[in-house]
Specification:
This protein has helices spanning 22-26, 35-42, and strands spanning 7-16, 47-51, 54-71, 74-91, 96-103. The chain is mainly beta. The protein has a single domain (12-107), classed as Beta-lactamase Inhibitory Protein, Chain:B, domain 1, CATH 3.30.1450. The two termini are 28 Å apart. The mean pLDDT is 87.
Length: 114
């Protein structure tokens, strides 16, 4: 008997990624930097969260990589999305209270779907 195996292998990337400027982040100082300063340095935030004692400006960048294998009837897939994110917390006078940063976008990987 002879079996024919037909298939396809696909790699894909979805980028919403512009790295954060480290020099701009060096200019940010809690207790000194205002919300306007942050917008001037980083542009418009991805999201703004209103809190009882101020606001949080969220900046997100992401990289997603996917792998798909189609074998006649069966498909296997793998999808990895990693995010760089900075969250700036402002008090009720729009002065920076503190911020947090997570840089993981560079860790997005293609992988076997098994």
């Amino acid at each position: 008997m002879i079996f024919f195996l037909s298939g396809c292998f696909v790699l894909g990337t979805n980028k919403n990624y512009h790295p954060f400027d480290a020099k701009a982040l060096d200019k940010v100082q809690p207790g000194v930097t205002t919300a306007r300063d942050v917008v001037d340095l980083f542009g418009a935030p991805t999201d703004v969260v209103e809190m009882s004692n101020g606001n949080a400006y969220i900046y997100s960048r992401s990289v997603a990589k996917g792998t798909v294998i189609w074998l006649l009837i069966v498909s296997f897939g793998n999808y990895d999305k990693q995010i760089d994110q900075i969250v700036f917390f402002f008090d009720d006078h729009d002065v920076l209270a503190h911020y947090g940063i997570s840089l993981n976008a560079k860790n997005a990987e293609y992988g076997l779907p098994f």
